[in-house]
Amino acid sequence: MKFQVGASLVLILFFANLIRASDDDIQKYLDEQGQIHNFPLKHLNYKQIVETFYQLEKEYPHYIKVYDAVQQFNNETLPKAYCSNTQSPQDLCKFIYAVITNYSDPKHVNFTQSFFSGNFHGDEVVGPNVLTYMAKYILEKPDLNILSKSYIVILPMSNPQGYSQNYREECSIKNGKKICTDINRDFPYNTTENKCFQSAGARIINYIWKKYLFTAAITFHGGMTAIGWPWGSKNHMTTSKGQLSPDQSAFYNLGKRMSEVGGEYPDIPKYDCGILNDIIYPVEGSFEDWSYAASWEKDIDPSFSSYFPKCSGISDDELQIKDSTARSLTYLIETTNNKSPGEHTYGTWQQIQNNDKGQGHVTRNIRLTLDFINNLSPSYELVTHKSANYTFYVKWAVEGCHQVSNTKLLVRENDQQSNVVNDSYYSLQQLLDDGFQIYKEYTDYQGKVKDITSFRSQVIEFEDQRERLIDIAIFSECDSFLTEKVSSGQPTIEPQSHFVRSRSNDSYIAENNGFFINSNKYIIKSLGPLKVTNYSIYTEPDVINSANSSQKNDYEFLIALFSIITVGAFISYCIYKKFDGLGANNVSFQQLQDDDHQLQQLPKSQQQQQQQNQSKKVQNKEGGMKQYELSHEEDGL
Ligand SMILES: *[C@@H]1O[C@H](CO)[C@@H](O)[C@H](O)[C@H]1NC(C)=O
Ligand SMILES: *[C@@H]1O[C@H](CO)[C@@H](O)[C@H](O)[C@H]1NC(C)=O
Ligand SMILES: *[C@@H]1O[C@H](CO)[C@@H](O)[C@H](O)[C@H]1NC(C)=O
Ligand SMILES: *[C@@H]1O[C@H](CO)[C@@H](O)[C@H](O)[C@H]1NC(C)=O
Ligand SMILES: *[C@@H]1O[C@H](CO)[C@@H](O)[C@H](O)[C@H]1NC(C)=O
Ligand SMILES: *[C@@H]1O[C@H](CO)[C@@H](O)[C@H](O)[C@H]1NC(C)=O
Ligand SMILES: *[C@@H]1O[C@H](CO)[C@@H](O)[C@H](O)[C@H]1NC(C)=O
Ligand SMILES: *[C@@H]1O[C@H](CO)[C@@H](O)[C@H](O)[C@H]1NC(C)=O
Ligand SMILES: *[C@@H]1O[C@H](CO)[C@@H](O)[C@H](O)[C@H]1NC(C)=O
Ligand SMILES: [Zn+2]
User: Fold this and answer.
1) Which of 38, 233, 413, 434 fits 34 for a cystine, CB–CB 3.0-4.6 Å?
2) Surrounding residues of ion ligand 10, Cβ less than 5 A
3) Which H or E element spans position 625?
4) Residues of 18-52 as b/e, b for ≥16 C-beta within 10 angstroms?
5) Ligand 8: which of 387, 461, 533, 534 to mutate, most ligand atoms within 8 Å of CB?
6) 465 CB within 6 A, ligand 8
7) In angstroms, how far is CA 80 from the centroid of its own chain?
8) Is the CB of 318 under 6 A from ligand 6?
9) CB neighbours of 38 closer than 8 A, spacing ≥ 6?
10) Measured CA angle at 127 (ends 153, 77), to 5 deg
């Protein structure tokens, strides 16, 4: 803990220095910004959400495209969900979805894709507001370093009918009868033939999943405060407890990170987190397990194919799932105990980045979602360099990465400029073959994530003092612990998600419909030719892919985020199991026995900490949680 505080101070001082603005300047700037931007977030109704997205498309055509899924997938057999009492064609609900990326960059087809669902349940109203304001925020602040590497698909209202009329299910008329379907029980996973793909919402999501190639997803709900991940179905229960999935290490660590970034405030509790079966309850037909496992689980064991029914009335073609399409790290977020907590709890525009000024349900979920997106694809936040006295100084930072397992600085003399630096290196061997030599190497330092990045710097010295041209390359490997196999995962196979596979396999490639996921086990940046001189050349911080507008705001955000991290470090509300490696303290992975929660191989203080966490959990189960379990039958989450 002491170390942690010390490190924070050093970094804060560093950043304060970097920005070179007096406190007064910063305060003045923030006050001005506050007057412009510190408006309270209003609740947006169905119509306002649709309009907001089309408006954003008009304003930012290079960064967002908006579709109406009903027209896009143009299937006349989709159940007709109306958003008004008159059932005329123009009253069909609009299932709008938006794609946000940098369309001007030809590489966007290979950016990391993630999917966000606002609300399967119409009366759980926080999610649609989170996603609509998040879209606006990303587009209005294009320095977030998200547009340059992410491909974000947002379905702000997964149940527009329920949202517009404030009820849970989606209803339509079938053979003269009104049929209502719970969209999050309507996916072909651990359910029966006549109980899947009966809703327009679930079928539209299936179409979206067949079209894109998602690495990860978040689906928003309401009714409690928790973050859960697979398994979340009855076929993955053993007596009363849930089974871990083969990707538990990644699920757990990214889930815990979201809980930490979500924070804890006087009126807003910290997110509990854990596998859905334990922390919420098992269901049949859920989107979470389907989107994580439908591409691979049925191939593991022929008997598992019974978990994947055909759905009555749906063609084989529509049901067909490719090997690449359903391998997502999918999270379910229960945003609030109250499904409709009122707009006074949403927060203000400014709080999205300034969490020290209070926090709302909408703002904290925007912040944790943006952080989540950023962490899906590590990259270099900045690389700066300076030459003087015939030496060369390089500084770099990795973002979107909690722990830099390994980073190297490589150098190549290139006086004749016979070699051209190219930006498509993908392995260390390639760099070595191309004449680079390892100058310095570091292992296991805290790389951390955006806004709390720690830097590596290195002076390169040469044997003889003369001017020369060099090329440099920086090689890093991130978060290798996320890829570890969990011995008690079920089924007992290697991790299956794209996320883990692309980080652990340096030749990984997955493809769907012209979109690719390439390995990001190593991230490599090369620069050159650079001049080594006897006078000082300083390249100002070269914030890659970033506009110059909001440095000062980021400074506040930075400090704010730090306080969460340092507080969050020792208080984990995430329940259990195998790993406890992230967070700022980075204790080595705590080994817990999986099935009986008993502890092994832990230093005493950590054992006490764990026991505290667990007793909290038990209290929840016996107190608050029970209530949820009871109300679930009538009410559902
Ligand atoms: C989008 O891509 C274009 C072309 O590569 C680039 O010039 C621009 O800076 C990018 N915009 C952002 C916000 O990354
Ligand atoms: C996308 O990745 C694929 C597979 O690695 C590659 O062949 C293709 O050139 C990449 N596309 C772009 C535009 O970078
Ligand atoms: C879901 O799986 C459980 C356990 O295998 C099974 O008992 C149950 O019948 C399944 N549900 C459906 C609807 O098939
Ligand atoms: C619409 O869905 C039906 C049932 O799944 C299928 O037979 C048909 O091919 C689909 N049509 C289109 C245009 O996708
Ligand atoms: C260069 O070396 C001189 C003499 O050793 C020293 O005074 C000066 O500070 C150095 N300059 C830089 C930029 O390191
Ligand atoms: C980059 O370098 C690699 C390895 O030397 C080479 O195969 C590739 O063709 C180069 N690409 C470009 C665009 O120069
Ligand atoms: C790595 O990925 C490639 C391409 O997707 C695949 O062929 C290979 O089997 C994978 N290697 C391992 C060890 O999983
Ligand atoms: C480098 O430049 C400084 C003055 O800028 C000079 O005093 C020094 O001798 C130079 N060093 C070499 C090795 O040329
Ligand atoms: C950078 O900042 C300057 C001065 O504030 C401003 O005029 C310019 O438009 C900004 N550039 C971008 C890309 O935001
Ligand atoms: Zn729900």
Assistant:
1) 38
2) 121, 124, 221, 637
3) helix 624-634
4) ebeeeeeebeebbeebeeeeeeebebbebeebbeb
5) 534
6) yes
7) 32
8) no
9) 348, 349, 350
10) 60
Q: How far apart are CA 528 and CA 525, in angstroms?
A: 10
Phi/psi at 543 (5° precision):
-80, 105
Of 477, 481, 532, nearest in space to 506 by CA: 477
The C-alpha atoms of residue 517 and residue 500 are separated, in whole angstroms, by: 12
Q: 476 to each of 62, 442, 525, how far by Cα in Å? A: 31, 9, 9
**Separation CA 112–CA 627 (nearest Å):** 39
**Distance between CA atoms of 277 and 244, rounded to whole angstroms?**
9
What is the rounded distance in angstroms from the CA atom of residue 530 to the CA atom of residue 419? 13
Q: Please list the rounded mean pLDDT of every run of 10 residues in the chain (637 residues).
A: 33 33 48 58 97 97 97 94 89 97 96 98 98 95 81 98 97 93 98 97 98 98 97 92 95 93 89 95 96 96 91 96 97 97 92 73 94 91 86 86 85 87 86 95 61 67 94 90 85 96 94 96 92 87 42 32 34 52 28 24 35 35 28 49
What's the CA gap between 53 and 65, in Å, rounded?
9
Going edge to edge, which strands form the sheet with 112-117?
Answer: 64-68, 96-100, 150-155, 112-117, 216-221, 329-334, 226-229, 272-275
d(CA 297, CA 295): 6
- Stated as kind and residue range, the H or E segment containing 404 is strand 404-413
Q: Of the candidates 433, 414, 392, 190, which has an alpha carbon nearest to the alpha carbon of residue 288?
A: 190
**CA 437 to ligand 8 center in whole angstroms:** 28
| Of 70, 285, 81, the residue nearest 170 (C-alpha) | 81
Strand partners, 383: 396
pLDDT digits (tens, 9 = 90+) for 488-529: 899 999 999 999 999 999 999 999 999 999 999 999 999 989
Prediction pTM value: 0.82
Both tokens assigned to 532: 């080594």
- Helix axes of 248-262 and 551-568: crossing angle, nearest 10 degrees: 110
The string of DSSP codes covering 100-134 is ES-TTSGGGGGSEEEEEE--SSTT--HHHHHHHHH
Q: Residue 545: CB within 6 Å of ligand 1? A: yes
The encoded tokens of residue 6 equal 């010390």
CA dist 208 and 97 (Å) reads 9
